[in-house]
Amino acid sequence: MLSRVYPTQGRVEVRTVWVLGDQLNRKIGAMAAADPGTTRILLVESSAMLEGRSFHRQRLHLVIAAMRRFAGELEAAGFGVDLRRAASLSSGLAAHRAEFGTGEVIVTEPNSPRVESLVAGLGVRVVRSDQFLCHRDEFAAWADGRSRLRLEDFYRWQRRRLGYLMDGNEPVGGRWNYDHDNRQPPPADGGDWPTPIRSRLDDLDRAVIAELPPDAPGVDPVGWWATSRRSARARLRHFVEDVLPGFGPHEDAMVAGNWHLAHSLLSPYLNLGLLLPDEVCDLVEEAYRAGRVPLNSAEGMIRQVIGWREFVWGISWLWPDQADANVFGHERDVPPAWTFDAPSTLRCLSVALDGLEERAWVHHIQRLMVLSNFANLYGIEPTRVRDWMRAWYVDGADWVMGPNVMGMGLWADGGRMATKPYVSGGAYINRMSDYCGDCRYQPGKRTGPEACPFTTLYWDFLDRHRDLLQPNARMARQYHTLDRLTDLDQVRSRAAEVISAIAEGRM
What we know:
Blueprint (H helix, E strand, L loop, with lengths): L14 E4 L20 E8 H5 L5 H20 L3 E7 L2 H12 L4 E4 L4 H8 L4 E3 L8 H8 L7 H12 L3 E2 L2 E2 L31 H9 L17 H15 L23 H6 L4 H13 L5 H24 L28 H13 L4 H15 L3 H11 L5 H12 L16 H7 L20 H12 L1 H4 L6 H9 L3 H16 L4
Parallel strand pairs: 1-2, 1-4, 2-3, 4-5
Antiparallel strand pairs: 6-7
Helix pairs in contact: 2-7, 5-11, 6-11, 8-10, 10-11, 11-15, 13-17, 14-15, 17-20
């Protein structure tokens, strides 16, 4: 049973600020001007989230526990808080109005088109959101008239207008981008990486866990994910002080024995509002200016926050149709390994899936070059990949899915966002990880029982989609190599065997 805290003003008519579950910060939108003497707060826990989708247990716990802790923080600050469980957001609002009257209800602009369309018909006043540094209207204005939307152009525009890592009108160090320096493979010894902060679960956590559906997938929380702004801030400080110095060079590396490396692990908190993008970037730049962090690490992190993250946010509003794209015509379902009905025999895939089951998180290269790459090569229908990732990732926000999964990960939009598909054989995974040495498959082989399935399916993928991809100038080298293969018939035959084995849960 959820606690409900009533206003101290008696029956005085006050306005209601309705706080959505991904806006948990007193500085965001309508909350910024909220006063305990005149404002009641509404938070709705939607039962549909628990019952309608198979979200990972740790994602469900994070969202629900964070909402309840935020409600407690507001209560301590003197607000009257109506925290209620309802079948849906709209029914929660209706129940609130029935109990407290029909005074004005104010809500901050939702973070996804789906919720915005729901809110639009509920008779509430919507105020502008400042949860992102580039409002969607500003992004649309920047994009207007451009023949192609390039991340690098947007990122430089953001740097100039926000002032991060700038010396006047020029970038600090004379370069805008240190991405080339940040693509090193893992150290030969695996590296020595700072351990992430882990919280001790309390009574609130245990109560939330006890309420989770018994069939919700994944392992129960063990404290990796912060559920309050205070804890999220502690993790931000830990990252900047202890982790960020080593962040840059090995951003794209993968190590079987270490799931976090030097990644920030901050995306869930940014997505829920527990952290704001400017406070992250402010601390990063401060650390660089003080000489505690190298420029390539500071630039790499700031680019992720004000560049890629905000670019994806803007694209999600500009191209809502991207979320249903399927240029390759893929039709397969997610394989048994992805539903944990059968183990994968591919070590890279097994490590990624185990990480998702245990923590609801894997880093961006595992998402892009292992999971999304596999989905394309095998031929999973894109919306099924989208829905699967949204359910399993602790940071799987709705607005992320179109650009990140359909545009970047799967190239399902046909190049609207990325100039070429991010597909590869086993060679890339071998170069950027320590996975292949202990795997039963060999990344350099494309045929035979020891051939890496990624390598086999990569060449088969290029062959199957020749008409679509060969005209792409950035694919010329790949097709030149494909045309020189003397064993293409054997590749096709082995690819059919691999696809059958994956579908049957044997690979």
